[in-house]
Amino acid sequence: MNYLGNDLPDKLQRALLTAFAGVVGLTIGLFILNKGKNDKNPPQNFD
Fold first, then answer.
1. How far is CA 1 from CA 12, 14, 25, 34, in A?
2. Could you read off the pLDDT tens digit of each residue along the chain, which spans 47 residues?
3. Which one of 4, 21, 32, 39 is separated from 13 by 20 to 30 angstroms, measured CA to CA?
4. Cα–Cα distance between 7 and 39 in angstroms, integer?
5. DSSP 3-state assignment of 46?
6. 10-45 as b/e, with b when 16 or more CB fall inside 10 Å?
């Protein structure tokens, strides 16, 4: 994993890209989770 204390431009760019990818992944995951939680029509044969 990268750390933001390193002042090398390649390391900083990789750390910011990793942070941005994590934010995008969490946003998509929480959107799918919230969409499934408010579903009014559950499956018929749900155990």
1. 11, 9, 17, 29
2. 556 665 666 777 888 899 999 999 999 998 888 777 766 766 676 55
3. 32
4. 47
5. coil
6. eeeeebeeeeeeeeeeeeeeeeeeeeeeeeeeeeee
